[in-house]
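Bumping my old thread because nobody answered last time. Still need a sequence for this structure:
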């Protein structure tokens, strides 16, 4: 029961963070959103590591965590931007299709997915096709833009899953700190090249801090859940985080999808859950 509660908490935190990220990116450049939110997360986890963690793990594990963070920066940046210019209820579930990528990597390595995972991949891909078949009436341009960015986000998240798995031997805290370092490093490099205006209105400081805190809390809740119960069960529940984003977009923004798109979103989420269960 505790593991289930932790997994639900992770899904709620991730889904809410994504919704806030998309909303905030409509008022502030995505690089500014990532800089403040992920910088806050790194500061917090860095403090925790300095106080509680033992000696540093192997350099290869830390490097894998940093590379995972680079991929996560791409995923989050595309997700937030996609939800800012598109329809959240479309972009969010598409981004969850990144769970297919670790399965593809396993195939390259010579491993074979289970029947459950194979069914999940099929359902996820079919869901992407249905949910992205066209924007809702009156929002076709926004929906089309969001679909492309949602697919980029899925690619980034999928690469993140592969990298963070390699970094897992470093422990939850070190792996989290390494991937947060990777995210922030990617943001700083792009900022140095692009140099966009980054004045942060006072009214956005709290939402930005909330995004970083929720994202970090979700990671910790998920890790704790896998220690308390079956990893498969915890992964299935936590992977439903887009449902939270969709619900918030429905209640707060009044977003509506047609029946085919609703079926696609449901199939996509079911597919991700099957992949996690396998």
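Sorry it took so long. Here it is:
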């Amino acid at each position: 029961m505790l593991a289930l509660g932790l997994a639900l908490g992770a899904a709620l935190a991730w889904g809410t963070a994504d919704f806030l990220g998309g909303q905030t990116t409509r008022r502030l450049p995505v690089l500014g959103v990532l800089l403040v939110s992920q910088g806050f997360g790194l500061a917090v986890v860095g403090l925790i590591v300095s106080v509680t963690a033992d000696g540093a793990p192997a350099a290869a594990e830390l490097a894998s965590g940093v590379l995972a963070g680079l991929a996560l920066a791409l995923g989050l940046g595309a997700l937030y931007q996609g939800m800012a210019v598109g329809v959240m209820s479309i972009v969010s579930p598409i981004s969850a299709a990144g769970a297919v990528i670790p399965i593809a990597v396993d195939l390259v390595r010579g491993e074979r997915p289970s029947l459950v995972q194979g069914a999940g991949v099929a359902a996820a891909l079919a869901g992407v096709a249905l949910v992205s078949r066209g924007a809702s009436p009156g929002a076709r341009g926004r929906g089309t833009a969001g679909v492309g960015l949602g697919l980029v986000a899925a690619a980034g998240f999928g690469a993140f899953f592969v990298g963070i798995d390699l970094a897992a031997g470093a422990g939850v805290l070190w792996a989290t700190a390494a991937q947060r370092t990777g995210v922030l490093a990617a943001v700083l490099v792009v900022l140095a090249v692009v140099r966009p205006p980054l004045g942060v209105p006072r009214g956005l400081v709290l939402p930005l801090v909330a995004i970083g805190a929720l994202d970090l809390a979700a990671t910790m809740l998920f890790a704790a859940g896998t220690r308390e119960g079956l990893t498969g069960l915890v992964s299935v529940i936590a992977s439903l985080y887009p449902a939270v984003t969709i619900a918030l977009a429905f209640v707060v923004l009044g977003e509506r999808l047609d029946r085919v798109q609703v079926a696609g979103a449901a199939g996509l989420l079911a597919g991700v859950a099957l992949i996690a269960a396998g």
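The chain has a mean pLDDT of 86. Let me know if any region looks off to you.
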